[in-house]
């Protein structure tokens, strides 16, 4: 018999007459599985236990040793969570079916046939989320008798985006379907005007993933009583998904050396990462921003919190509380690389989760930005958010949590300073207020397409609303460059280029003289291989042309090419920056361009028609388009409910790679695959499987 939880109100109940006892072998959730899981949208979870969502009724059947008599018999279904359950803390919940006995969770008799009673139970919409132990307590003349502990009767209670009383209620059915139930997604990377897609298997319903997500909260020693608060859960998880402070899930690595783990570009899904972490109890190697965001997305969706991955193109990393990214030029207009320390990430991924914010004024609920990538500490811990996206847009950065950092990521100015050769002082010569936060995107619900959500983070550049927001942010301590250097009468632009890995190219510079006089411009052109974080790996191009422009005329100048292949790093982009000094006026002109290197294609084919419960063959093919061998080629393929992660390693590879492997098809799904060459070149593909 289980010991009585403390503060249990049932310890005072007595009754007379023949006692009714529970049949220990018949009290089960299994026979109500087909009723509960479709109604609770938990039918996709691979689990041996019942999984329900709070704020919504579920049913279970209890078999007694005789027919139930409502007028004489008293019983309760008890739910217990944590190591020291207490009624006053909401960790011990006795649910009575008697109308005169109130309970935090509603209970009623749905049906009573012979010895079997079907009980309907509605967990409170703010109850603790986690794995609950279940007992049935019967009042007898000798006291309360409880069923013995049986792990098979444990059930999981999750957040409920379908329940109006839940803090994560999301009224948009399409968004709810995408942000809670979709197991696969697309993460965008590259450049805002030349985006690439990375498929990802979130796998929130895979066997063991739910337990792994609960283990993360256990590992963090998160109080059980806080686990029904979506705000606290999201904030705790933003710390626990990285390993910096607390042996969290993922080890970050931007060094390019992944000898002791898996290269971030090699992962195709979250399942393996979470299962490895929960089984080994040690952090998994390695991750970069999109891996943190993807695994965080799995965590949130698995627990029932609507979530999506967003990508911010040209994302500022501001760690000194201002809204400036400083570029230092010497007296000739050339970038001083020794004194220019700030960098702008070509893209950065974080998450949004949907919830109400009762801790904030009305209107700041809804989508909240959270970020698990360890960039800066918040209250001494590497974490970020949740911060109201509405608060970020309106400059209300005083609201918790970490709104100033996120505000700067989408609103910083790029300020060019010229060093005075006489006294060494810096003077602003050009301010680019539109470069950072150029575009914020996420996946369209129900489609493999992208959605521009920049307007949810900021007002249009130069609008009166934007000026008001920036003034508001300055009131709360975010400082920006006040100087407004005069616009130069010579314009400089670099047109977009599409470059495939290995291709030669010719950089072009377009000048336009808007003045009535001739202009002479001394130009410095630098081409660099950069990591996606904007950090320069090496310079491969440097030119110093002098350009003479006639009045009111334009001119196109060839800026040259360069041998970048020998200097490639993982996820490399080509970053070009041109600065020029107009001889007649001393004005500085600048232009920047990030070029995404397009990679070869990987193909995935499935043999025959995909049919439920049948085996199928998956063929992965890749043709080497280069004139040299590819060394250490790793191929990885997986699909939720279809195929666990599978790998294959190829050493020197010159022409076509072909790999055939088996998969099982229990349900419509998606196959995600990638190939990696020496961690430098990654190719991706995903194939949607539809039942025939």
Written overview of the protein:
Its cofactor is Ca(2+). GO terms for molecular function: metal ion binding; protein-glutamine gamma-glutamyltransferase activity. Belongs to the transglutaminase superfamily. Transglutaminase family. Pfam families: Transglut_C, Transglut_core, Transglut_N. This is protein-glutamine gamma-glutamyltransferase. With 692 residues, the chain is mainly beta. The chain is built from nine helices and 40 strands. The strands form eleven sheets. Strands 1, 3, 4, 7, 8 and 9 form a six-stranded mixed beta sheet that branches. The relative contact order is 0.09.
Structure, briefly:
The chain is mainly beta and 692 residues long.
Element layout with pairings:
Layout (H helix, E strand, L loop, with lengths): L32 H7 L10 E4 L4 E6 L11 E6 L11 E5 L9 E8 L2 E7 L7 E11 L2 E4 L8 E4 L14 H9 L2 E8 L2 E8 L7 H11 L10 H11 L9 E3 L18 H10 L3 E4 L1 H15 L3 E10 L7 E6 L14 E12 L10 E5 L6 E2 L2 E2 L4 E2 H5 L9 H9 L1 E7 L6 E7 L6 E5 L6 E3 L11 H12 L14 E4 L5 E2 L6 E7 L5 E12 L5 E8 L2 E4 L4 E7 L12 E10 L5 E11 L3 E5 L7 E10 L9 E7 L3 E8 L5 E10 L3 E9 L3 E9 L3
Parallel strand pairs: 1-9, 12-13, 15-21, 26-33
Antiparallel strand pairs: 2-6, 3-4, 3-7, 5-6, 7-8, 7-9, 10-11, 14-16, 14-23, 16-17, 17-20, 18-19, 21-22, 23-24, 25-27, 27-31, 28-29, 28-30, 28-32, 32-33, 34-35, 35-38, 36-37, 36-39, 39-40
Helix pairs in contact: 3-5
